[in-house]
């Protein structure tokens, strides 16, 4: 979910997309379960409008997992190949938004 959101944010900045158009543009790139969720989300709104921020919060809650990214990062341990651990760590580090110094301490603790 974070990858989708990052791409949306980049696109919106590059194209200078108006806030009122963000939800419609972003939903164009959803498919599968996420698209069904989106359709239900809109149905439940009825005649009301959703802000982009409220939409992002709702879709991240539904598909982003409910555990705090920092907590996930702290709990990550190397169980197999080092490269796999590094990849998993990088993904969680991006979500947790901690400094490089903090990340190094957490990374070493997970080895």
Outline of this structure?
This protein is 73% helix and 0% strand.
Mean pLDDT: 88
* Percentage of residues assigned to helices: over 70%
Number of domains: 2
Shape: elongated
- Which consecutive residue ranges, at least 5 long each, have pLDDT under 50? none
As a whole number of angstroms, the C-alpha radius of gyration is 17 Å
Distance, first to last CA: 26 Å
Q: H/E element string?
A: HHHHHHH
Structural class: mainly alpha
- Portion of residues in beta strands equals under 5%
Biggest sheet character: none
Helical element count?
7
Keywords:
single chain; 111 residues; mainly alpha; 2 domains; 73% helix; 0% strand; elongated
Q: SSE layout and pairings?
A:
Elements: H1 2-15, H2 19-27, H3 32-45, H4 52-63, H5 69-75, H6 82-96, H7 100-109
Plain-language structure description:
- The longest helix has 15 residues, at about 80-95.
- The chain is elongated, with a radius of gyration of 17 Å.
- The model has no long low-confidence stretch (mean pLDDT about 90).
- With about 110 residues, the protein is an all-alpha fold.
- It folds into 2 domains: about 1-65, no CATH class; about 70-110, no CATH class.
- The chain has helices spanning about 1-15, 20-25, 30-45, 50-65, 70-75, 80-95, 100-110.
- The chain starts with a helix and ends with a helix.
